[in-house]
Amino acid sequence: MADALRIGIAGLGTVGASLVRILQQRGNELAVACGRQITIAAVSARNRNRDRGVDLSGMAWFDDPAEMAEKAEIDVFVELMGGANGAADASVRAALTRGLHVVTANKALLARHGVELAKLAEEKGALLNYEAAVAGGIPVIKTMRESLTGNSFTRVYGIMNGTCNYILTRMEKEGLSFADCLKEAQRLGYAEADPTFDIEGNDTAHKLAILTTLAFGNRIAADDIYLEGISNISIDDIHAAADLGYRIKLLGVAQKTDTGIEQRVHPTMVPYDSVIAQVDGVTNAVAIESDILGELLMVGPGAGGNATASAVLGDITDIAKSRPGAQRVPAFGRPAELLEPYRQAEIKSHEGGYFIRLTVQDRTGVFASIASKMAENGISLESIMQRSKKQHVEGEPQTIILVTHATTEASVRKAVASIRTEGYLVGDPQVIRIERPKSV
Amino acid sequence: MADALRIGIAGLGTVGASLVRILQQRGNELAVACGRQITIAAVSARNRNRDRGVDLSGMAWFDDPAEMAEKAEIDVFVELMGGANGAADASVRAALTRGLHVVTANKALLARHGVELAKLAEEKGALLNYEAAVAGGIPVIKTMRESLTGNSFTRVYGIMNGTCNYILTRMEKEGLSFADCLKEAQRLGYAEADPTFDIEGNDTAHKLAILTTLAFGNRIAADDIYLEGISNISIDDIHAAADLGYRIKLLGVAQKTDTGIEQRVHPTMVPYDSVIAQVDGVTNAVAIESDILGELLMVGPGAGGNATASAVLGDITDIAKSRPGAQRVPAFGRPAELLEPYRQAEIKSHEGGYFIRLTVQDRTGVFASIASKMAENGISLESIMQRSKKQHVEGEPQTIILVTHATTEASVRKAVASIRTEGYLVGDPQVIRIERPKSV
Q1: Is the pTM of this model over 0.80?
Q2: Which residue among A149, A164, A165, A168 sits deepest, i.e. has the most Cβ atoms within 10 Å of its Cβ?
């Protein structure tokens, strides 16, 4: 049997502690699968004395993860600290500079510095594995980077934030408001005390930026993502969507178009009978569309200590099964220097169907006015309907729901702006994009 | 750049021709992704003169695939001929014996000889890759063998035959009979002229046997699979299932139980709101349950020239990215000699819910008799209902539908046998097992 693979783990939170436990409990099985032992030679965390429920004896302790990266007797540096900069960035750079393989679950780090890190890894002949950074336990990175090599990707999209999907699912199933569902998510530990990063789509954007680069070979462009969160989604939207045969999901979508690459994160209506529409609660799902294979959908746990540790473990065992310097899979599917500048397709040029919900004064001619504003902007309607409340009171504001055929974002914005000037709108219009899975 | 990887392709049917076309069209992209060229150095097929729409110039031609395996100047032998024995078996053995890596899409070959071939590959330091053998383009082999290393599997199940899923979907959506849908499937090329192998579950069984071995580390036991096809499913079953909140799918299920490993292929009721229930038409889906990750579901094209070629290509590029003799992933996740004897759990000991449809004479006391037979066999009922036709005619046979709570197959068989003796049954009872996804 080959020499043991020695790993150092930086960060002993939920995922780090799960990983230590699994490596200790599954030592024999892992040795059989990999043809060598995997030993935890070193660990690093902020507080040496905290009880994490795992036995750290026999492992070298480092207060400073960068020092562990530089000095520990290890082959693989496992970064589970999080954060785009600071200790995570410094220690991963130190590890790669030394030629160590790196396994990380850190989406923010990759979204910010992924290309530089990939370049550094290649120069040093090291592997940079990051399966856990996107969609937790779902092996989407390996699938895109390895299984689908040779495919040309057309669209990648998914439900990549469990907090948002939990809230949207609860709103629909229980008829509760966004605020109530958020509170419940916080009580259950599915949402942070400050949930902004999740519910406004930033977390999804980080993950999407990584998938976009894997799909289209551009340099990571996490700052050029069109972003809309779910805090604006009302139970009325969800009910109207259901009546029309849709469910609302927060999707991250990366798509190749004639004008460049679209990257967008927003609440999205997906057909009720599509497979992804059935993905409920904190579960994640990623759909990959490519020219040779067609569409592949992967559904699974997107977060949690064990699910994330499973992905980290897959990355570690991949290295254990290879021999030093033996295998070369560039971090983003092609050498970092061949990644192309990001050519952004503006959101205004997005083409697709739209759901538009308008609250209007109860006035004769409004319906006709809306329909003609749409027509003037070249928008063809699939349906336009007045959504009647249980008891309609004469003179009270009415809700009108439009569903468009494929059109452009620019047309929709112009039409809505034009409707605004007519003076019968009450409050702001709600505009939700419709996304249609190719086949499943 | 490293030396080109030279492959030889045996079998130039739909998949083989797709593969040749893709390798020729995507040469540059593949070289970038793999760090080396992939060249088709040799091909073998039955008829040299057939026009396959691809350019075979510059490739050495072999009439005999075994001769190609023995003599061609190649690094990888790609077997796309099919068949458990004969040329496929002989040439794969010859290739492995020579130390060539083998990529195959041949489920029958693996179900029959997989363990021996894996052993031979290990002895010779060769890789045996077979992603395309199970669920076409869905990367289930790589996911189980690599991404989930360290996980202990509990259940693997899926829709792995597009013909059956197409027929069941059409029956439900159009209200057509099994026979009519089969004819349509044949007309569209989704079913063979002799469809027995697909509709009776044998094809699913081959694939299941491979997944079982990957999941549970037993020697492949394709002959010890409990088999029921879909030809017995009526539109009445599908309607009754829908009324109860289920859909009927032909599933292959491998599951670890206290008494051993269950391998079964049969029509199965899955809850309507589960993700797998929404997988329609020729699409395949595989669910993998394991202790660390939880449940992962992968949905995608299970057949077709391109989808299968995509999986074959992934296997080839994996080899191209590694260096000769550099990586060791045992074919079934652990060395072949460590695969354990198959310990079969009898179908009679299967535990789960059951749907039972009985046609009975319109006679007082039948309902009570059925309920008491169930109770006598310790079967607890979730529901028992008389399914009324639109126009009930006094004295005509009635349909009674039972749904049981979790019980054993043995109990159900005893109860049904006991009901048979009562004399009020008309025709044969229909018994369909219910499978519940863990989470999604």
Answers
A1: yes
A2: A164
